[in-house]
Amino acid sequence: MSVTAWIPRDAGALALGAEATVRKLQSEAKAAGVDVTIRRNGSRGLYWLEPLVEVECAEGRIAYGPVTERDVPDLVAKGLLQGAAHALRIGPVEEHPWLATQQRLTFARVGRIDPLDLAAYRASGGYKGLARALDLGPEATVNEILESGLRGRGGAAFPTGIKWQTVLRQPAGQKYVTCNADEGDSGTFSDRMLLEGDPYALIEGMTIAGFAVGATRGYIYLRIEYPHAFKVLVSAISTAREAGLLGDDVLGSGNSFDIEVRLGAGAYICGEETSMLESLEGRRGEVRVRPPLPAEKGLFGAPTVVNNVITLATVPTILAGGAAAYRDFGQAKSRGTLPLQLAGNIRRGGLVERAFGLTVRELLEDYGGGSQSGRPIRAVQIGGPLGAYLPASQFDTPLEYEALSAIGALLGHGGVVAFDDTVDMLEMARYAMEFCAIESCGKCTPCRIGSVRGAEALAAIGRGEDRERQLVLVEELCDTMLNASLCGLGGMTPFPVQSAMKHFPEDFRPRTRGG
Amino acid sequence: MNAVASSAALNEARIVAIVERHRHRDGPLIEVLHEVQADFGCIPSGAVPVIARALNLSRAEVHGVVSFYHHFRTRAPGRHVLQICRAESCQAAGGRAIEAHAQKRLGVGFGETTPDGQVTLDAVFCLGLCACSPAAMFDGEVLGRVTPESLDALIDAGIRVKP
Description:
The complex is a heterodimer.
Chain A: E1 2-6, H1 11-15, H2 18-31, E2 35-39, E3 53-57, E4 60-64, H3 72-77, E5 89-92, H4 97-100, H5 118-123, H6 128-136, H7 138-148, H8 160-168, E6 176-181, H9 190-197, H10 199-213, E7 217-222, H11 227-242, E8 258-263, H12 273-280, E9 304-308, H13 309-321, H14 323-327, E10 330-331, E11 334-335, E12 337-344, E13 350-355, H15 360-367, E14 377-382, E15 389-391, H16 401-406, E16 415-420, H17 425-439, H18 445-462, H19 467-484, H20 488-492, H21 494-503
Parallel strand pairs in A: 1-2, 6-7, 6-9, 7-8, 12-16
Antiparallel strand pairs in A: 1-3, 3-4, 4-5, 10-11, 12-13, 14-15, 14-16
Chain B: H1 2-22, H2 29-40, H3 47-55, H4 59-68, E1 80-85, H5 88-92, H6 95-106, E2 112-113, E3 119-124, E4 136-138, E5 141-143, H7 148-161
Parallel strand pairs in B: 1-3
Antiparallel strand pairs in B: 1-4, 2-3, 4-5
Helix pairs in contact in B: 1-2, 1-3, 3-4
């Protein structure tokens, strides 16, 4: 008999032993006389179940997880390859409540197909978006994006259609589409999952953007911490080129578009769009003064679209299904779906794509199942190292742009990091300043000096030295950094610091420390 | 002396060859530096003027880029590189204990190399493995939900592969 099993090649699954599981399953199946074909997919994003093994059966793909190398002999003996019962059997994976309650538009394919299988991409709706865009023409394509309500998913949440419109209206000539894949925020991994799990969606999205604004060249700026994503991207771009989906005659339309991947070199600030452009040009990743906007004068001085991975990978879905269908998801000014990423001290971490509106508590409890340690969740940080800390009293806030902004927080790239009640918020505030000091480019004084002094003052508070004066100093430093830094690194580091001081003042008071 | 001089000439030829491979690209400096580091293990100080001359940039511009990015090294690392994530998600999941364990096991701090030249310990700020924190990477092999035991096993296995 012959059986097909799926095991992710996603870096998260690899980090939990997927390669060893693949090898063991091959050898055990062989010993059992079963002919098994192991195919590799992206991750479904249920990371507490990785490595997740899916076996193709008459009733669909039956999942088992987490399956480590050690579990394989027993599983095979008890009939894993026939979809038989076992303590690790999850059942039909798409019926798992964690997945079944999601609204996966951007991540519709991730985990379902072999990421590099172009035929499978096209068979599941791929390149329908580009075909429709080519029918509509540039102007109407930009209008679709405008009407969909799509806002930049990288963090700034700027309406994507307006960016595209600005670039389209620039005089014809060299223009660029750049993809920001410098996903540096702790607690975020949706770009990585998408790049590793459905790279053609990004390639198609960039191609549509190129056609819409009149650009023939695209760059993907990928962080060097993502070596697995790099391999997948390079391979997918080459396959797309061979298939005539990139190059001089895209999809036989006579339009030209091609993409180059460039690796970053470990600088958090390069996630900011203008410093990313500087870095793409081969320079220090220092921010540029705006105006001019990148849409007017961006990469190499030419009009440039700068969008995040998730934004661009959502474009094909919007074009294929129509703006209205996408706009129907979400609420108020937050339209469509958002791939949230649940991380930190959490029982069931992973990727939750839903229409905007889910509250922090629903995410932490219904999806996350509480903390991994079993202790109460005391704080969450949303939006990366420059995002605010929220106390439990704010957990009923919906995860959408305006609602978070109203409580002085930000959604950023959608990463939510949970901390249990053992967290020392003074230490997290000090760490925020330390991180800023490590990543500061040094160009402006508020960031360069403020972060170092801030970390020193918070460390002194921890030692109980001159506490009151140090607290005043931290407030003053935050005020200066907030108002006088040249860019968001220094300008937003006060968010985690001040929110920690405001919501967890007890951690900044004298106390008896254990240990 | 002659051996040193000729090896410097050889290195210069290698660097110029790398620059030539990237010269046709727009904004090639970082691409050049990536390849120089892949070839030499670091950006040797002698490479800066060679690259500057070949790309018609000032030494200050090249040095400025090398020193801006954490990834570029001016000294070669050990035979192996261990990266421990120090970012928030990993801290929330017990990462501080892993940081301490790695430093104790290797007997060095972050940014340092063991005296025998075997392992360089680096901090990294997010590997994108936050749903399985804490995370680490050893010579490109990723590890999630790191425990002191699994970290030791990863290091031992990596050293066995390339002693």
